[in-house]
Design goal:
2 domains, membrane, HtaA domain-containing protein, signal, ten-stranded antiparallel β-sheet, eight-stranded antiparallel beta barrel, mainly beta, 452 residues, 13% helix, globular, 41% strand
Length: 452
């Protein structure tokens, strides 16, 4: 490391330490992490390799993960703990992404890698990104599944994590592949390879006081087995959402009638209708609508209805069938009937609704369906992106990644050095931070790698 960089890092650490050390009691109480997001592109050149002319593959999102533009994937619903006194953070996120390429004649893939449920642990000035991983070895083809793999080491650059409130956010933290991560990555990269930077934002709150259990009296109303409440989650199609907000359509979407935005999907709630547990059939209508508007585009999907029979479901908008999907037999479990992320296919009439942009048979975003048949049961929660999440996302062209992190400025525009965003103030001290930043800008840059 260049001596000037060491000096600048030390200066910046001292500056941030002076700002972030709590002024109250010596030991602040731990806080609960509840809600938040992690944005990470894994490695941009790997994405390009997967979807390029050699691998001829693709990637797909799992468990409510989304895209945020710039080649980043968004993982959601952070849960864990944060110690503002010691600066330790332990936050786990939901969602996953699967990369496939080099298709084989039997329908499998030589390249098949899933990264799911990432988690970040920071303690003692060190940070690690963990993930559940399933991969097919590059040389032998052996499939390996591992949980909580220490995938990447995070370079915090001397940032003092103490004294944060809510949200706690880190932006563009440099990440490096660990030896365990290299093994789980199926041998595509050696340990020490630079990965894409990691950004996260998590909401923290004081721990909830333990509640005294109270018996729940039986509720009058719907008989057991009949539909009490229902919701259907559907993102329409990821590439369609990116087109709407992209440089061509330059548009967006608006929700009405109770529809909710879950980042990578829309929820149409307050389902009502008929469910037959004996036949496994459903005929339900849902509240809410989403309108997509942009240059040459104005499409509203509303009056959503779902019919299920013989293990197949059809989702309609305003009486027009849009997609079909497999459900299997609709059987309740602990008062909840659930279909999770069922692959969906565009119908011929759905192709007309989309103005011929996609032919019939096109794969659309998966559908999730939940029906409660017991008043004690609850519908699955929407992905919780935490405070300050932008909706809808605005895709941007990938930019060259710098080796250091970028902070979130008060105005929301990125600058060129990373820090823990904790609502810092004080012009004199920030001037010293700016001096450290100026020195860091003169560091050597890592040359681009020709590998995937």
């Amino acid at each position: 490391m260049l001596p000037s960089r060491s000096l600048a890092a030390a200066l910046l650490g001292a500056v941030l330490g002076a700002l972030l050390v709590p002024m109250g009691p010596a030991h602040a109480a731990d806080r609960t992490v509840r809600g938040g997001r992690l944005d990470w592109g894994v490695r941009s050149s790997f994405q390009s390799y997967v979807t390029g002319p050699v691998a001829k593959g693709s990637w797909s999102l799992l468990g409510g993960a989304a895209t945020t533009g710039g080649g980043r994937f968004r993982f959601h619903s952070a849960a864990g703990s944060y110690d503002p006194g010691g600066g330790a953070l332990d936050a786990a996120f939901f969602g996953g992404v699967r990369f496939t390429g080099h298709a084989k004649a039997d329908g499998s893939y030589e390249l098949d890698l899933t990264i799911a449920r990432p988690a970040v642990r920071i303690s003692g000035g060190r940070g690690t990104l963990y993930a559940d991983m399933t991969s097919r070895a590059k040389d032998t083809g052996k499939v390996t599944t591992s949980t909580r793999v220490p995938l990447a080491a995070l370079s915090l650059g001397g940032v003092d994590m103490r004294g944060g409130g809510s949200p706690v956010a880190l932006t563009d933290v440099p990440a490096t592949l660990t030896p365990q991560g290299a093994a789980a990555f199926a041998g595509y990269y050696p340990a020490g390879t630079a990965l894409d930077p990691v950004s996260l934002s998590v909401d923290t709150r004081a721990p909830d006081a333990p509640a005294s259990p109270t018996p729940t009296p039986p509720s009058p109303g719907a008989p057991s087995g009949s539909l009490v409440d229902a919701a259907v989650d559907w993102g329409v199609r990821r590439t369609f959402r990116e087109y709407v907000t992209g440089s061509v359509a330059q548009g967006g979407w608006t929700l009405s009638g109770g529809a909710q935005d879950g980042g990578a999907l829309f929820r149409f709630p307050r389902g009502h209708g008929a469910y037959d547990p004996e036949k496994g059939t459903l005929d339900a209508e849902f509240a809410g609508a989403v309108r997509f508007a942009g240059t040459g585009l104005d499409l509203t999907l509303g009056r959503i209805a779902v019919k299920v029979a013989d293990g197949r479901g059809t989702l309609s908008s305003a009486g027009r069938p849009l997609i079909t999907f497999a459900t299997g037999r609709l059987a309740p479990h602990e008062g909840l009937v659930a279909v999770a992320e069922a692959p969906a296919t565009l119908t011929a009439e759905g192709a007309e609704v989309f103005g011929g942009r996609y032919p019939a048979g096109t794969a659309m975003d998966p559908v999730s369906l939940a029906v409660t048949v017991d008043r004690a049961a609850r519908l699955p929660a929407l992905p919780d992106l935490g405070s300050g999440a932008r909706t809808p996302p605005t895709p941007k062209a990938p930019a060259a990644q710098e080796a250091a992190a970028r902070p979130e400025s008060a105005a929301g525009s990125p600058s060129d050095h990373g820090r823990l965003y904790l609502g810092l103030a004080g012009a004199g001290v920030l001037a010293a931070a700016a001096l450290a930043y100026a020195v860091l800008r003169r560091r050597a840059r890592e040359p681009a790698r020709p590998t995937p």
